[in-house]
Protein: MSHA biogenesis protein MshG
Organism: Idiomarina fontislapidosi
Amino acid sequence: MQFSYKARDKSGSMQRGKVEANDAKSAAQALMQRGLIPVDVAPSKGKASESKGSKANASVWQQLKAIAEPNVELDQLIIFCRQMYSLTNAGIPILRAIEGLADTTQNKRLERALRDVHSQLERGRTLSSGMSQHPKVFSRLIVSIVHVGENTGQLEESFEQLALYLEKEQDTRKRIKAATRYPTFVMIALVVALFVLNIFVIPTFANMFSRFNVELPWATRALLGTSEFFVAYWPLMLLAMVGAFFAIRAYVNSASGRLLWDRWKLRMPIIGSILERSILSRFARSFSVMLSAGVPLTQALSLVAEAVDNAYMESKILDIRRTIERGENLSRAARQSKLFTPLVLQMIVVGEETGRSDTLLKEVADYYERETDYDLKTLTARIEPVMIGFVAILVLILALGIFTPMWDMMNAYQGR
């Protein structure tokens, strides 16, 4: 961008001219490097429309780049918090630390966010306010803990708390994914097997049975009817499945749909109790981190409601916050919500009486994490009998439908 300037040289005489720079501050610095003292620096009028067009094009290009950039994964945030803890604990200035991390990170979205945070720090803004401008990278929980660390002079401890919390969160997510991987693959294999059998295998037996003109058993008639439906309408079935997937996804993304889905997840057989323990663990740990960082109680509840990542639990936690704002204490508000188990309620009561709520909630989180870990380890053993029973029923129907008429035809052929 081109700037027109007025500046005085060492002898005091006025100089006029133009200089290329990214902004007015950079233009003034360029003039001082030449030995000139800037008096007035303004964008060149001849390039005003051009600069506006270039800014608009640059803005569109930046938006397209932002869409194409990969999301910031949890492990990258953990590394960022660990590095910030080490740098701040070593006494490295924040500006230098942010600039160094922006130069070394491999994630483009995180790099762009850190460079913007660095530029905002140079303009005098705080670290937390700069991070709050990038909600897709830094959640409100992270921003709030960093804000408390800035105000209390314990920024390095805030980053250490965040690193520990995010590591626990990552471990829980990995264990849940590992436990649900097996039943997911089994269900996908069963769906594919149903399509293959009904479209390619059963029609072969149907042609064979049609030559004998004999009365077929009910299992065989059911299989042949199902196969005819699959052969005739499988393209529509695929379209219906894809349409249903996107329709359900759109409904779940809505406020009412997400509330209903998250409430139903907690009541699912076998895995509902595991999800509930996992959410209670996340609630206790994030609430403990908030309280130990010095976040006010009502603000901590608002942040924890977002951290649990469950709309039903979020609404209940926000109800607790509103009850506290009306003058009730935390233990009574938690008991009225009917959301927590007796263990959590007991720990909240003891924490209020002793002033150690953060420590006791951390113990609750550890307890529920151990319970969740054990349930996840035994989840496969509990799901396997259900899967085996379902597969056995399918095999039994196929055996009765295909082999029973074959035995009848063999007996008729032998004259029995």
